[in-house]
Write a structure and sequence with these properties.
The chain is α/β, with parallel strands linked by helices. 33% of the residues lie in helices and 24% in strands. The chain contains ten helices and 17 strands. Helix 1 packs across helix 9.
């Protein structure tokens, strides 16, 4: 058994994702006994007293603070998780870099390509490893899909389809939280969901070089939120004051890939029917494959004239064997974050960027930015190639 060095963890924002980060650090230590670091939950920051109480009483943090700057200044904190709302990511990430703390941040990392680029460049200049919450990469079936594509098993890739459809904002009574305001969220479903889809496509197939996009907002006004409302599912009063939705409910892109493939990427936050229908399809000259998050542990593969066969994830797929003993026993969403935590911890231990990087988040942000420009002009827009250390290549 590897002797582990304690590693102090600081958490900024104790919402749903912050709580999952905390659990994932501990789960990583259990599923990856070869890790050289043993995460210790030192301090959590949240302006909400209820969040702070949860951090100590349930998650097991040693202490809590209201101000995130106290987390970054704490000498016992070695790494930081940034799980705050989008509009605070840039400020907090730059402060973490200034403090010399490697960080694990949720996406979208910035409210656009400009903020994302600054975070990525400054982190790399400071020599800090990072991690970004592109958790769908870590699905064992996706790992197998990448192997099949990159090995040439399904031939030259011709076309790709990505569809991330959800219903979390389908109710018109859903409150006008920060997620619907450009100054606080940046883009809408493009940054929230399709950034995941774009990263997944690049991880499996390769870099997206240009896009032609359209966007639409189907619920133009929403009721103003009650004090403290922040989640996807917060409701407002139907009879109360309303405000304008400032970003997109729906987006669709045509895309060109570096290797010559073409693709279609689509996403909605107001689709009635799909709950979390996140689909990747890759077609090649010798076969094709399909993966759907709703059937996370399955991969459909067609590599002969008989059509698709469904293959269940097993020990030969990615990190599956770290979690389950054999085919048929399923993994879940939280397990993907444990894999992500392990990659972050290995990155910190080795100084090598193994987890999805800030540069990967910058690359996804450039696709989102190009899509927004294309939606305004109606034409094709080139996606700039980032010069940071990406891990999707």
């Amino acid at each position: 058994m590897t002797t582990r060095t304690p590693l102090g963890v600081g958490l900024i924002s104790v919402g749903w994702m912050g709580r999952l980060h905390a659990r994932s650090y501990l789960a990583a230590g259990q599923h990856y006994p070869d890790l050289t670091y043993a995460p210790r939950l030192v301090v959590a920051a949240d302006p909400d007293a209820g969040g702070r109480e949860y951090a100590t009483d349930v998650l097991g943090f040693d202490r809590t603070v209201a101000d995130y700057s106290e987390v970054l200044a704490d000498p016992e904190v070695d790494v930081v998780s940034i799980c705050s709302p989008n509009f605070l990511h840039h400020e907090i990430a730059l402060a973490a870099i200034e403090a010399g703390k490697p960080f694990w941040i949720e996406k979208p990392m910035g409210r656009g390509a400009v903020e994302s680029r600054e975070i990525a460049e400054r982190a790399e200049s400071a020599g800090l490893v990072t991690s970004v919450g592109f958790n769908y990469r870590h699905v064992p079936a996706v790992a197998r899909a990448r192997e099949l594509v990159r090995s040439g098993a399904i031939g030259t890739i011709t076309n790709v389809r990505v569809s991330f459809l959800a219903d979390y904002s389908a109710d018109p009574a859903g409150a006008l939280t920060w997620r619907f305001l450009t100054a606080r969220a940046g883009s809408g479903v493009l940054g929230d969901l399709l950034s995941h889809g774009a990263d997944l496509a690049q991880y499996v197939v390769g870099r997206i070089t240009s896009v032609n996009g359209l966007t639409a907002t189907f619920i133009p006004e929403r009721p103003l939120p009650a004090a403290g409302a922040a989640s996807h599912f917060s409701k407002g009063s139907e009879d109360g004051p309303r405000g304008a939705v400032e970003n997109e409910d729906y987006a669709a892109l045509l895309a060109r890939f570096e290797g010559g493939a073409v693709g279609v990427l689509e996403s909605s936050r107001v689709a009635i029917g799909p709950r979390a229908e996140y689909v990747l399809e890759v077609y090649g000259t010798k076969g094709s494959l399909r993966w759907d998050f709703q059937r996370l542990n399955e991969l459909q593969i067609a590599d002969d004239p008989s059509g698709y066969r469904t293959v269940m994830a097993g020990p030969e797929f990615g990190d599956f064997s770290r979690f389950q003993p054999g085919v048929g026993t399923s993994m879940g969403f939280d397990d993907l974050k444990a894999i992500e935590a392990s990659l972050f911890l290995r990155s910190v231990a080795t100084g090598t960027q193994l987890a999805p990087s800030a540069a990967d988040a910058w690359a996804a942000a450039e696709i989102v930015s190009a899509a927004l420009r294309s939606a305004e002009t109606g034409g094709w827009v080139e996606v700039p190639e980032v010069d940071g250390e990406t891990t999707f290549g």
